[in-house]
Amino acid sequence: MDKLARPLDADRRNYRTLAIVTAFILLIPVWARAIPGDVLHMDIVNIMVLAGIYACVVVGLNLLVGYAGQISLGHAAFFGIGAYTTAILCTRVHGFPTWLGVLAGAALSGAIGWLVGKPVLRLKGHYLAMATLGLGEIAFILFQQLKGLTGGTVGIMDIPPLSIFGLKFDTDLKLYFLVWVIVMALMLLSINLIRTRVGRGLRALHSSEVAADAMGVNTSSYKVQVFVLSAAFAGLGGALFAHFQKYINPESFVIAISIMFITMVVVGGMGNIWGGLIGVLLLTFLPQVIQALPQWIPGLPSGLQSFSNYELVLYGLLLILFMMFLPKGVADGLGRAADFGEIRARHLRDRRNAKRLEGR
Amino acid sequence: MGDRKQVRLLWGAAALVAVVVGFTLIYKGSTGLQWILSGLTVGSIYALVAMGFSVIYSSTRVINFAQGEFTMLGGMLMFTLCTRGGLPLWLGFLLTVGIVTLLGAGFERAAIHPLKDQSVITVIIVTIGLAIFIRAVAKWIWGTDPVKVASFTGDKPLHFFGASIVPQSLWVFGLTLLAVVLVFAFFNRTLLGKGMRAAADNPDAASLVGVSASTSSLVAWAIAAAVGAAAGAVIAPINFAAYDAGAMLGLKGFSAAVLGGLGSAPGAVVGGLVLGVLEMITAGFAPSGYKDAVAFLILILVLLIRPQGLLGKPADVKV
Amino acid sequence: MMAAQTLLEIRNITKQFGGLAALKDVSFDVTAGEIKAMIGPNGAGKTTMFDVLTGILSPTAGEVSLKGQSIIGLRPDEITAMGMIRTFQTIQLFEGMTALENVMVGCHCRTRSGFISSGLRLPASRREEKQIKEKAMAVLKDVGLHTRANEIGTNLPYGQQRLLELARALASEPDIILLDEPAAGLNQYETGELATLLVRFRERGLTILIVEHDMGLVMQISDEIVVLDYGEIIARGAPQDVQNDPRVIEAYLGIEA
Hints:
The structure holds 3 protein chains of 3 kinds.
Chain A: H1 11-34, H2 37-40, H3 44-67, H4 76-92, H5 98-120, H6 125-145, H7 147-150, E1 162-164, E2 167-169, H8 172-195, H9 197-207, H10 209-214, H11 219-245, H12 255-268, H13 275-296, H14 307-325, H15 329-359
Antiparallel strand pairs in A: 1-2
Helix pairs in contact in A: 1-8, 3-8, 3-11, 3-12, 3-13, 4-5, 4-6, 4-11, 5-11, 8-9, 9-11, 12-13, 12-15
Chain B: H1 3-60, H2 67-84, H3 89-112, H4 120-142, E1 158-160, E2 163-165, H5 167-189, H6 191-201, H7 203-208, H8 213-239, H9 245-260, H10 265-285, H11 291-305
Antiparallel strand pairs in B: 1-2
Helix pairs in contact in B: 1-5, 1-6, 1-8, 1-9, 1-10, 2-3, 2-4, 2-8, 2-9, 3-8, 5-6, 5-8, 5-10, 6-8, 9-10, 9-11, 10-11
Chain C: E1 6-17, E2 20-31, E3 35-39, H1 46-53, E4 61-66, E5 69-70, H2 76-82, E6 84-86, H3 99-106, H4 115-119, H5 123-143, H6 158-170, E7 176-180, H7 188-203, E8 207-211, H8 215-221, E9 224-229, E10 232-237, H9 239-244, H10 246-252
Parallel strand pairs in C: 3-8, 3-9, 6-7, 7-8
Antiparallel strand pairs in C: 1-2, 1-4, 4-5, 9-10
């Protein structure tokens, strides 16, 4: 089987895919609402809003982990900083524009990403992983302890819904479109980055930091910049999260959430621009599907009925199995399946041509 | 950083710890002593967890995110075997350690060994997956409530300059001492142990003396699981084991390992004890929620300033 | 023809690793437009010298100036931007990137588009991308690899990978290129092609400092040879003189002519 030369991104293909995916996503609410609720047993639009919010984080994290080859086990911290920033501003300052709160959340996350990123990104591999984990934990503790600012374990309530220039995003459906338009914009930014000088620099530093340095890439600066970018994206997601849930507390920003983000990147496919999205959708819907299973298949044993019993077991097992058999993620698996299909098709076509020539 | 500056840093760190401890004793008297004794007790557990990290790291350069779960299982199994099952404590202890050791070795063969050529992130995620899996199964089996295990030699507190400790604490100290001696002797005096340390950096040379990277990894995981389980078994009477105890223990044990020097058994003990004491003192002086932050602050500071920790060698660190 | 100017000045470079001196008080110059070879037995300090010259290691003592400017303490990417670039002893092509993309990274130091400009596809970025692509293609054509432009770099046959690394370095438009054993693993034909290529580039004004074990290549193309042994220079001069120098012969214990 010949090794196909598959460059990591084929320019036009990615933009076209983006257009198709955008169209598809914008149509989801149409058919989702068409299916009666007692067949589906899940509110797809609501779940998709959350998925979109997580996607904001994961798109940035994929650039950091998948392309630049770094790691962060503490990204829930930036998610939380974004959420708390907009929550505090919008509930404490009377009439504070919510869209400004979102921007402030993203900006502050990015700024803190720069502050902690500069020293921490000197580390590599496990050490970087543990340092980011430590930072995430410290952030969580601060969210809990700075009661005057964050409301402590009680959190912040009555966060106003988002409104941009008078347009109020107070329903799931409206938020759905806003969030996914934002996600697609972030995807567009990512595709642009990856196919240009910056993207090559990041991929180069992932492959061989020494060689990238030697070729003129300022690797330490690039690592920090992509970290800041991913922090800002995460902050943006967090701020949207605050206006979606209308209530936040530290529990939404525990280390398990950081692990979830990383899992989405890895399972979806690192180093593949669509990996993040695939991972988000897979891991957001999987628990929902598992929860809905007993209602779809009436005969399941009672032990399996309770969702919290085996969701985590499955989750852990999923991580282990994925890393063992599909370490490059679903996107790579799909890519390889597509390659396989293409080779088979070529094969069959060649056979047919050969037969035709013989018959002549 | 120059060597002289490093030595000064170490003395500075030691002095700082001494000052903090001294201040506590002077200012808070016997209450302070109580904090320190509690700190040494919990610090010994951190030390044992840290030893587990160190053993696996020094043999395979892998960080096992599920190390804390081995300790959790130690406590839970003691509950099932002794409290529920009625087995004598010594038998329960041996069986607990044995079962968890088999588990650790089994996981190594099933999921770690096949991934030896994969990237750092892949292995990290696998051990995280294991941690989640073990925790979830534990929740399934034992539920969420903490469980009680009987103390090995009773509960009558021993008094000591106005502070008191329970006899179980002595068991904890004793186990820690035994463990560090055994682990140190193993890695520095036996051929297998020395070979395992070599295998991490130079697998070819190690296999020449009969220690393959594969053997190394397997034995390391078995030892780490055994030490972890023993720790969990011995702290269970004091700390009330529960299904989610492993998470924090793992993180703090790792901080202790990094502080003492990843790959050093005595370092694990030093790191663990220092962390435990500093934690208890912080909890005494500051609002208790900040106690947990101590471990992570230390972790980050050490990684940034002296990644090889107190007793580690710079060459050990590929930072 | 322009007067020969000193491009690279190396003065009293010493590099200690703990108790071991990898380089001891090494000094030599590289003149613009020359091909200078640095030879010596394994462990003589040649790659260490390259690491010092390109900012990967900082010397324990000594000075290096490129075009009159000191480069000690600069980052590798800064030195590359100043006009000195290197290739590696073991091939360090970027994985998952095509031959073209690899060479395009070589253009990095001559371009400027950052995260914002690239992310938003601003006109400046689009223009630069076009320029980079054209430049990279031109370089590939120059070395004869343009037919392989869209293949993954690390999938190419070994000899072409070496050539690709060279092309990548050339894309940075350097004044001087440091080649670390570029002929390692090449057969006689490929080595001959490499020699022709290097001489052609020298004629265009490129200065070359080459570390090599293939004496045939060294003798063929070098203007001057510097011989290192145990971190010290033990001989220097024209190829014929060095070849016959008894100290050099002794250091190698049988030097291949």
